[in-house]
Amino acid sequence: MDSASFLIIEHAPDYETGDMILLNKTNMVFGRESFYWKPDVSFHNVFVSRKHFLIYVESNHFYIKDLDSKHGTYIKRDFHQWGFSLSPTDG
């Protein structure tokens, strides 16, 4: 895994446009924190599930997978449920 890979925020609760999240693990869960659960990256918003989506690395490619979240995971306004390969221009 490339240690210099990161996600640039365009619009998200608790983050400013342009904020960067370092993708420093093979599997990173994004979601809403609770008393019993702390994801790798937290969003404080009722529309974000506790375990909302996963970004993972496979064969040196990044993928995003919705984790059966209530409101879904969208890339470029398209709904994605299964592993979707991310490219540097996705947003």
Describe this structure in words.
The protein has strands at 6-8, 20-22, 27-31, 41-42, 53-58, 61-66, 73-75, 78-80, 84-85. The radius of gyration is 12 Å and the shape is globular. The mean pLDDT is 81. A 5-stranded mixed beta sheet has the order 4-3-5-6-9, with no helix packed on it. 0% of the residues lie in helices and 36% in strands. The chain is an all-beta fold. The chain has a domain at 27-85: Tumour Suppressor Smad4. It contains no helices and 9 strands. Strand 5 (53-58) and strand 6 (61-66) form a beta hairpin.
List the helices and strands and how they pair.
Layout: E1 6-8, E2 20-22, E3 27-31, E4 41-42, E5 53-58, E6 61-66, E7 73-75, E8 78-80, E9 84-85
Parallel strand pairs: 3-4
Antiparallel strand pairs: 1-2, 3-5, 5-6, 6-9, 7-8
What does the radius of gyration come to? 12 Å
H/E element sequence: EEEEEEEEE
Write down the CATH class of one domain.
Answer: Mainly Beta
Structural class: mainly beta
List segments where confidence is low: pLDDT < 50 over at least 5 consecutive residues.
none
What average pLDDT do the residues reach?
81
User: What is the CATH-assigned architecture of one domain?
Assistant: Sandwich
